[in-house]
Each structure stands twice: as structure tokens, then as C-alpha cells.
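Whiteboard transcription, Tuesday session. T.W. wrote the C-alpha cells on the left side:
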């Protein structure tokens, strides 16, 4: 890796990120797996049995184990990932959070449309087992995506992917991004800060500071009052609008482009709340879809 004089490192890393950083598509693996793990703890027994049947034969036949499958297609099945890449988000450029399906999700090609379509496939017991298995794996992932605020955005920067960040952090980046990490400064974007660094700061191992890991972090979140909200489960479009409104209501866009741990610490409670809400809503969605046998 090319080294830069220390004083120039932040600028050089940021420029490198501008030129080469790939678009982000999800919570990190940790975030998605926590959604799956927490949801699996709160579905009913009938749903648990259905999940076990559908995921039989998977390397890790749990909701946590398949939670990153939709992102893993990027490497395992690039053609399918390309065909489904628009299913991970919904964006609008009009400055409001009034998403319009015809304008912002043509032909159902957005996360709201994908959740609705995959839920229909999952609940249709006339569908082939493989189609229903894939639908379950997509749903676990996309419900998580919808609760990452940058995945339902009204800014003109592709959900924060084009908002460049120079992040001072001791948390090493994921493998694909290591070339943008120089002298403790990560050249990245706001979307990736939300995907990986906010939760990873306490969940992932750092030098001299072991992280909580999946089980430990899920236990911590599950120990909080459950469910994480009251009232009936709303529809997917409401989840997207909720994420969008949080972006501006909580001022998730920083002043400037240099961040450190203070930003991560300040926004972690919101990120953890979104993980918990995603898990609860996913559990209820799966109970409603799988919890009773077909008539």
C-alpha cells in the first residue's frame, strides 16, 4: 500500500475514496446478522419450524446465518446481484420523504417492492421450495436494509454513497476497503459509516479491545425492553418513510467531511434501535406469513 506523509494522509485517503470506493449496499454483516438473530428469538414455534424446513441444507440454517446472502451474491453470483441490486434501497431526490412507487420504485425495483414481492413468494406454498427459501433469505436482508436510514434517503448523493468522509478510527475496515485506511484515517463515505463503523466500533475486535461479537451484542440489545415499540406492525412503505425522516430529524449528515469516534458514539443508540425495530418487525412479518398452515 502506498504510504503518504502523515500530514497529507487524511486528504490522500479521502481523494482515494472519491476515486475508488465501491457503493455500499447494507448494514455490515454484524448488523444484518443481529437482525436475524434477534428476530429468531421472537418468532412463534410454528414459524420456527417453518424456518427450519426452509433453511435445511444451508451452511448455517438460521436467520442470522442467511442474513448476508443477498449481499454475498456480489461475489457468489454477480449476474444475480446485478439483477437485484436495486432491491436494497429506495431513494428520492425531491427533498421529501413522500416516496412515490411509480417514480421511485418503477416495476417494484426498490426495497419496498422487493419486500412485498418476496413476502408473497414466501407465503405461497405452491411455490417451489428453492424459491421460498430464497424469498426468506431476501426478506431477512431487506427488512434490515430498510431500517438503515441511508437506505431510504432524500438527498442527492445516492444514499450517502457520494458524501465522502475522512474518518479517524482504530477499527480496521472490511477487507475490500483496506487500501483506503492510512495512518488511522479511513477514506470512506457516509453510507459506509452507517453500514459498518457505528456498530462495528463496539461489536468488532480492535487492537487491545475485543468486540462484543454477534452473540454478545445481540444479548445486550435483547436485554432492553421488548418489543422496541408499541402498536401494530406497520407496512414496509412506512418503515422506509420512517428511515428517511430520521436522516434529517436526527441531523445524520455531519457538518463537514471529517469525523471521529464522537459521531459514531452519538449515533450508535439510534443504530441499535433500528436494528431492534427491524428484528421485531421481521419476526412479526414472518409470523404473519409462516405462522399458520395454508387453508
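and on the right, the sequence the group agreed on:
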Amino acid at each position: 500500500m502506498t504510504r503518504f506523509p502523515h500530514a497529507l494522509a487524511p486528504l490522500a485517503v479521502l481523494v482515494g475514496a472519491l476515486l475508488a470506493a465501491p457503493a455500499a449496499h447494507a448494514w455490515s454483516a454484524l448488523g444484518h446478522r443481529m437482525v436475524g438473530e434477534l428476530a429468531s428469538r421472537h418468532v412463534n414455534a410454528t414459524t420456527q419450524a417453518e424456518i427450519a424446513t426452509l433453511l435445511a441444507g444451508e451452511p448455517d440454517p438460521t436467520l442470522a446465518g442467511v442474513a448476508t446472502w443477498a449481499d454475498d451474491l456480489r461475489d457468489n453470483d454477480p449476474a444475480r446481484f446485478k439483477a437485484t441490486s436495486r432491491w436494497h434501497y429506495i431513494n428520492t431526490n425531491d427533498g421529501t420523504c413522500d416516496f412515490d412507487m411509480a417514480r421511485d420504485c418503477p416495476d417494484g425495483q426498490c426495497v419496498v417492492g422487493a419486500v412485498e414481492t418476496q413476502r408473497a413468494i414466501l407465503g405461497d406454498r405452491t411455490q417451489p421450495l428453492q424459491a421460498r427459501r430464497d424469498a426468506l433469505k431476501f426478506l431477512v436482508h431487506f427488512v434490515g436494509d430498510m431500517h438503515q436510514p441511508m437506505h431510504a434517503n432524500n438527498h442527492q448523493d445516492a444514499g450517502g454513497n457520494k458524501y465522502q468522509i475522512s474518518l479517524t478510527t482504530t477499527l480496521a475496515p472490511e477487507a475490500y476497503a483496506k487500501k483506503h485506511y492510512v495512518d488511522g484515517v479511513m477514506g470512506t463515505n457516509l453510507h459506509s459509516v452507517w453500514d459498518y463503523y457505528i456498530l462495528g466500533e463496539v461489536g468488532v475486535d480492535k487492537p487491545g479491545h475485543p468486540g462484543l461479537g454477534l452473540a454478545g451484542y445481540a444479548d445486550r440489545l435483547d436485554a432492553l425492553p421488548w418489543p422496541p415499540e408499541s402498536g401494530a406492525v406497520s407496512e414496509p412503505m412506512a418503515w422506509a418513510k420512517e428511515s428517511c425522516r430520521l436522516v434529517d430529524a436526527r441531523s445524520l449528515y455531519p457538518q463537514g467531511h471529517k469525523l471521529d469516534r464522537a459521531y459514531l458514539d452519538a449515533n450508535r443508540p439510534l443504530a441499535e434501535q433500528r436494528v431492534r425495530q427491524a428484528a421485531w418487525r421481521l419476526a412479526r412479518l414472518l409470523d404473519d406469513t409462516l405462522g399458520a398452515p395454508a387453508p
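Someone added at the bottom: The chain has twelve helices and six strands.
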